[in-house]
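Lab meeting minutes (informal)
Scribe: AK
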Amino acid sequence: MLELLNIHKTYESQPLLEGISFKVAAGETVCLLGASGSGKSTLLRIIAGLEQAEQGRVLWDGEDLAAIPVHQRNFGLVFQDYALFPHLSVAGNVAFGLRMRSLPEGEIKLRIAEAISKVNLTGFEERRVTNLSGGEQQRVALARALAIQPRLLMLDEPLGALDRALKDDLLDGLRHILHESGIPAIYVTHDQAEAFAIADRILLLHQGRIIQSGAPAEVYAHPGSAWAARFLGAGNLVEGEVRAAQADGWLVGTQAGDFLVRCTDTHRVGDQVNLLVDRHLVRQAENGSLRSRVADVVFQQTGFKVSLENGLIFYLDAAPKVGEEIHLEVPSAAVQCVP
């Protein structure tokens, strides 16, 4: 399968990618997740052969792809802007890569039908792509990539131009297609919700490096840095100072209150630490140690999003009143140290 070894790339004399290495296993969907400008799309273009790395290698089953031109790599590409041919029909767009490969007309027709069926566009074959919705156009782009039966599928912000409801619908279909086909895939996005929904494994990119790798639930529950926690929206991130050692952890003081932290790291009184406080594991309690007035309350499907005047946000089953002072019990299991 695909393997990247120590990829380096600069942009305008500044480092863009610094020592990127990872593998994509058979049937695996890997998501490159990071902020705009973190090098995600450039990395995808290097894998495709559209750009050259200044250092490092791209391998497929151990073979170096440096000398293999783009059209011979048999990698499928799907972009945010669809890159469809406006003068062609749906079938004409799906057929483009097949005709470039000079396949027999009978096989081309069969592959067009199969690809269009996979993306639920049967009956749309003769429509002009300019008459389709954004979601339908993206499905045409996906069908075109699938029709060539690629050994790797790469998707660069494929749903970036769509609204959330349409994204969710297409993500469900895309996840099913990838699992059913067994095609390994690299999915590039800056959207955490997309990454968690589609990926088997997430690679978190920051300042040109992979700073964390793991299953979506693992990366979200245990971010490896304060930046990762903030970017992922994994909880309340607060700065604190170690006040005292406790039998089962450390007492850490913050502007929002004191927290008991079960942390295996070695600390000393006075050390500055970053705490990640889970937004879901707290509950209202008369003797709760965390006290603050309610700044805002928003209903959501899973409960009430409660913003406090101390800057923290929690999700509660019952809605307090804005301006009311509430007391919250924060169990030690809801608090962790992050570097």
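Next up, CB showed the second protein from the same session:
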Amino acid sequence: MNYADFAVKQIATLCKIPSPSGFTGQIREYLTNELKNMGFKPTHSIKGSVLAELGGKGNPLVLAAHVDTLGAMVRSIKPDGRIRFTKIGGYPENYIENENVTIHTRTGKSYTGTVYLNGPAVHVYKDTATRVRDDSNMEIVLDEVVKSKEDTLKLEISAGDFISLDSRTLVTKSGFIKSRHLDDKASAGILLTLAKMVQEGKAKPKRKVTILFTTYEEVGHGASAGIPKDTEEMISVDMGCVGDDLEADEYKVSICAKDSGGPYHYEVTTAMIEIAKKLKLDYAVDIYPMYGSDVEASLHAGYDIRHGLIGPGVFASHGYERTHRKGVENTLKLLVEYIKKG
């Protein structure tokens, strides 16, 4: 089996499953079924994380990726039947202007729509280009014949309904993966691939290894609970940052030495760097200036663990993102070697 192909396929599949923070039942079911089909025995935390022990003994290690994404929620219904929304997660509103969305009602129905600036026609409004993009100046226009608040209410749409963003997932012949939600479904696909390799005897953990898929990372408390009590070390497998003053790009595995929460564990980070050098991987060591990870949520919750952060480089984070097959491969190779450590 070509495991890079498997990883890319999993990433594309995961990106297309709606899962804004707090609305992750469908992706939780997908992960559970995939892990069961591999022969593992996944479990769920109370708030919805998915865990699976891959094997090995001693020095328990958790590899964590989050499968919740950015999204929105219905804030209110306007008199004309259009929807005012509130964001889930942090992103500038202009990143979703003209994006297609799906509204998921609490009665099980779904409706599509599009995010528009209020008054988007340049032939009518002089200030379309300069108007501030925020939740008071933007709205969702439903793909339904609605002309009043009552019309929309008849569709069983109401405040508190979740809104997912169209992922627009595309894999190019040149190896690029372009999609919303590569943060962090790129690394979730990598962890599923690692599990597949363990199942098929291509990766053998020398220590106890558990993979963890969390569901509230984008709102700050994903891994604050639900990790195994015996955990001694935890690696957030998340997106690597790409931008000015950083060495990472879409082709590399990025090893984070420090983010806005402070430095990562010295020995863990150093071990990752040594493996990357040993395997001659394309890698970078970087400082992420505006970033927080799942493992930091665990530390703030009081877990006494060593911690690290790695991931494939992802361009245009929290927008329409891009990574590359090579970045996925380099991250996977680093993880395969790391779980061999006793």
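CB comment: The longest strand covers residues 306-314.
No objections, moving on.
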